[in-house]
Automatic annotation (TrEMBL):
1-deoxy-D-xylulose 5-phosphate binds at residues 130, 154-155, 184, 207, 220, 225-226, 229. NADPH binds at residues 15-18, 41, 129, 131, 213. The gene is dxr. Residues 9-137 form the 1-deoxy-D-xylulose 5-phosphate reductoisomerase N-terminal domain. This is 1-deoxy-D-xylulose 5-phosphate reductoisomerase. The keyword Cytoplasm does not apply. Keywords: Isomerase, Isoprene biosynthesis, Magnesium, Manganese, Metal-binding, NADP, Oxidoreductase. It is an enzyme of class 1 (oxidoreductase).
Amino acid sequence: MHEETLRSVVVLGSTGSVGTQALDVIAARPGGFRVAALAAGGGKVELLARQAAEFGVEAVAVADEAAVPALKDALAAHGARPAVLAGPEGVAEVAAWPCDTVLNGITGALGLTSTLVALEAGRTLALANKESLIIGGPLVKRLAKPGQILPVDSEHSALQQCLWASGPGGHDPDSVKRLVVTASGGPFRGMKRAEMAGVTPEMALAHPTWSMGPVITINSATLVNKGLEVIEAHLLFDLGFDRIEVVVHPQSIIHSMVEYVDGSTIAQASPPDMRLPIALALGHPGRIPGAARAIDWTTAHTWTFEPLDDAAFPSVALARHVGSAGGTAPAVYNAANEACVEVFMRGALPFPAIVDTVAKVVEEHRVTPADSVDEVLAADAWARARAAELTT
Ligand code: MG
């Protein structure tokens, strides 16, 4: 991007994995960006205050109102005086704060309101909170103008880049045969379902290639994350589920591919590093020099691909099912999973029971249209309660 175009950015979930990496990208590009406001859950007020001071932001919000006194103390200690907002309303106010781009790095279904508020306010939305798009599908799609959402998910950033690269005349939707989403396979790749009964939270948190937040790391071990990403790809790129493939690629170098009708496949390759998709979304339509390390071609590489074992990892087929059903079904899949992951992390649920329970909750759910936030959140709450019942 050009140094002279100073872009103002709001970072939601600034103390999380994507949020901190986004601020790294911004800090490395002092002439390129200004951080207008930050929001976080409230569990890391010292880090949030340090970020607010470093970037001289106008406002800071914490979702947890109880964190406000500690945040104010920490801000004073750092000599920062931004407006302090709190609660879900405070986070929503920051999501609508005057700026060019809102990066939504909130984890989970909680991010829905922020996504809707930022879109409504006309901001470019750098979307790391895939759950908001997935659970609020029709609502989000109704609000979003073409190009207003830029995916900050490595696979979807890759798909977007492959589509941009499709031809000199620009992207022709009729030329796309299918999207091929890659999956690392997670730490239990090659295991059969019966072997996963003894998996502990520690084992599931040890991801072979990516360093990410805890929920998405567990979701990568169950491949629920890949299921969510198939729905995300369907919503972002308007292709039917029969034209979205998943292939296991353990090295996580090819981040996804687009196959064209003439037999050509375009792939995007880079070492696994979230700073690249973050930089692409923040710097769009330019590329930020040095945002991430490139592939080192002076050493030998082996890239392998294998089909997904649907029997060992039923989460992806289940996601296709809920994605095709539409309405409140994806919200139920996501919420039941978030609830089950919490129970698993406490050591109170066997690993394979996460997806088994999600499947049960999905099966019991009567799908309704997801035409309002209330409807989505009601389905979300029902699924969490039902998953809690089934896991106690
Ligand atoms: Mg991803």
